[in-house]
């Protein structure tokens, strides 16, 4: 199914008057604070978040997976689904492929299809957390850290193959996330596991094209429950630094223990010029893969405040690769992704409202009450009209979720693909 832009424009007309009144109201409020609303809208309009190829099917847990109809059964259909989201939101202009779940069969065909929706290929993701049917070595006891050299070698070669696939699609980065670790004390020699991982990452880095980046993702626990080799940002940073200039740390919001100060981690990595990628989701307990902004929207705002500060003040840090990494258990994934994109743009817009000069002055005056007021005033501003306007100006939907439902997208997908299709890789 391909959404006809004219239908979006028609549906926009029904709510445009109401939208313009709300936009006018916030534009006036911002004018009193000397903030240019159009400048914020411009930034929102060009902000693009990659959708991972594994996010288009029903999510699940180890206890079960509850399918819904019309899931994309091929990479082509996954690109079609991202096309739907991008047409509605103008914010999903990239796809992040998972290998081997989504190896293209027809490279030119896939590239053409993606281009027809204005979708580019962002970071490619390797998978050494599960065994493939034709593999000689098992990852049961680790991949890049494996005590067995043949196992490490297989994992290194897989990552190099992922880079080669990405090269054919125009990707410019690879994300490495390792499930390696131990379930029981004494199972691994910590130092050997870390050294093996470092050696393996350095070998992958040797195969990285000159215009590519490597992102190293960390996670404190799961699937291993005693220790994880790359458990935190410090370990990921240390490994990235041991590889070279084009290796970076990747922050995934769900990959922290409860109450970790993620905004401070973001600030530290930006200061060191070593924040490469960013994965959005939300959580209450651990790596819950919940919809962005659904549990801790204020934290998301505080993180964005550091990201905006970093984007403006840290030229030593490259442009970030943004991606949604969530699982939306029990929801229509397309609706969940639309909600996530909305939450991301809202937090970004709120962070753009923070008066950095006034904040600096208050910090220098050690006026902590004013510091808090400045942040909370931005957070408590209803920026949704700015977000809606950024879409309207791009001929996308003022209200993507309502438009998605009005156009009966899921019903049409079920008609096309059937009730029992299952997304590849899940
Ligand atoms: Mn992630």
Automatic annotation (TrEMBL):
Q: Which Gene3D superfamilies match?
A: Divalent-metal-dependent TIM barrel enzymes (3.20.20.150)
Q: Name one GO molecular function term.
A: isomerase activity
Q: Is Manganese set as a keyword in this record?
A: yes
Q: Which keywords does UniProt give here?
A: Isomerase, Manganese, Metal-binding
Tell me where on the tree of life, at the top rank, the source sits.
Bacteria
InterPro entries (alphabetical): L-rhamnose_isomerase, Xyl_isomerase-like_sf
Q: Under which name does UniProt file this protein?
A: Sugar isomerase
């Amino acid at each position: 199914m391909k959404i006809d832009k004219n239908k979006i424009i028609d549906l926009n007309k029904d709510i445009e008057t109401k939208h313009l009144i709300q936009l006018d109201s916030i534009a006036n409020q911002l004018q009193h604070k000397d903030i240019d609303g159009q400048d914020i809208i411009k930034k929102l309009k060009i902000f693009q978040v990659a959708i991972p190829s594994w996010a288009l099917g029903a999510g699940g847990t180890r206890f079960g997976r509850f399918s819904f109809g019309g899931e994309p059964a091929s990479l082509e259909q996954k690109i079609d689904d991202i096309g739907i989201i991008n047409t509605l939101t103008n914010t999903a202009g990239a796809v992040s492929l998972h290998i081997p779940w989504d190896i293209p069969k027809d490279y030119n065909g896939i590239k053409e299809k993606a281009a027809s929706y204005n979708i580019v290929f962002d970071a490619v993701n390797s998978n050494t957390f599960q065994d493939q049917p034709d593999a000689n070595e098992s990852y049961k006891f680790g991949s890049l850290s494996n005590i067995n050299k043949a196992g490490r070698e297989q994992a290194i070669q897989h990552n190099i193959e992922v880079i080669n696939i990405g090269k054919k699609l125009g990707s410019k980065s690879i994300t490495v996330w390792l499930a390696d670790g131990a379930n029981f004390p004494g199972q691994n020699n910590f130092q050997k596991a870390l050294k093996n991982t470092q050696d393996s990452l350095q070998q992958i880095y040797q195969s990285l094209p000159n215009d590519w980046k490597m992102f190293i993702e960390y996670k404190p626990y799961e699937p291993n429950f005693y220790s994880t080799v790359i458990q935190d940002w410090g370990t990921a940073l240390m490994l990235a630094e041991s590889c070279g200039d084009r290796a970076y740390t990747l922050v995934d919001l769900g990959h922290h223990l409860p109450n970790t100060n993620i905004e401070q981690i973001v600030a530290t990595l930006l200061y060191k010029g070593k924040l490469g990628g960013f994965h959005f989701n939300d959580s209450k307990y651990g790596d819950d893969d919940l919809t962005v902004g659904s549990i801790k929207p204020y934290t998301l705002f505080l993180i964005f405040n550091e990201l905006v500060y970093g984007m403006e003040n840290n030229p030593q840090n490259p442009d970030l690769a943004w991606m949604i990494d969530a699982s939306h258990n029990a929801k229509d994934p397309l609706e969940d992704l639309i909600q996530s994109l909305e939450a991301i743009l809202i937090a970004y817009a709120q962070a753009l409202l923070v008066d950095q000069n006034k904040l600096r002055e208050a910090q220098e005056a050690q006026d902590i009450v004013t510091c808090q007021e400045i942040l909370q005033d931005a957070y408590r501003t209803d920026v949704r009209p700015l977000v809606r306007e950024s879409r309207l100006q791009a001929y996308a939907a003022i209200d993507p979720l309502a438009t998605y439902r009005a156009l009966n997208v899921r019903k049409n997908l079920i008609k096309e693909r059937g009730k029992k299709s299952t997304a590849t890789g899940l």
